[in-house]
Amino acid sequence: MDAESINWFERAKRFDSTNREERAVLRECAKSAERVIDLGNTERRYVKLKAASLVEDFNFYPRHSVDDYCVVDYAKAMEAGAIFPPVIVEKKSLRIVDGWKRTRAALKHGGDGAEIEVEFRTYKNDGEMLLDAISLNTVHGQRIERYDLQRCAILGDQFGLSAEKLAAAMHVTPEHLEKIRGKLRSTRSGDVIANKQVGQELPLVITVRQAEGIKRAGGGNQVFFVNQVINLIENNLLDTENERLMERLAHLSDVLKPVLEKVSA
Length: 265
Description:
There is one protein chain. This protein is an alpha+beta fold. Among the domains are: 3-144, Conserved hypothetical protein from pyrococcus furiosus pfu- 392566-001, ParB domain (Alpha-Beta Complex); 222-264, no CATH class. It is 53% helix and 9% strand. The chain contains 11 helices and 6 strands. The strands form 2 sheets. Strands 1-4-2-3 form a 4-stranded mixed sheet. Helix 2 (20-39) packs across helix 3 (68-79).
């Protein structure tokens, strides 16, 4: 191990950072460096593959989304010489079981020709593979959030996993899993996803259409947007000669009616 990598290892052991995501990176570096040191000159247990050859199948990704900021942090760590744990891959299909961010970071750092260390695993069926993916993601690396646990519950139900096995993989009690499932809305299978932008105004689980709406929204407080429109109207600031604007306001009037009627009922 070169001097730069050893420096990362020493820093990693202290978790020397005030940034939460970087601390997660450092923890991974510490675990990986310890593994390399323990191996010494023994035969390598892993193989290297082109990172671009690995397959991302979101049906087996326990988290709501891949954190791009974390990917950038990992890529910077790789550039500094950090050594990461191998990516867990299903042997036959090359689907990633654990290590999505590490794989993307390797591609970001080294381009399409980048190689990454891989550990092959085989599974009896896709359900077993999902259980392993969930288990690996909930015990190390980036923190698992509430909405990620919601997604795990949704995926587990879609694969027909038993409550006992799913709870064990999520590292929660069966009672906690039941509470998570209780918060899931009764919606058509496959039409709900865990909502990352969860708050007082939005449910934990939303439809795909709602998710698309969130992407188009500005991300601020809903009251703020309503007040902006009210301000334009009350202070006579609307461009009433703008035909497109008038069409959208007419549409706003139409969609508001059933909402207000529902509230007043």
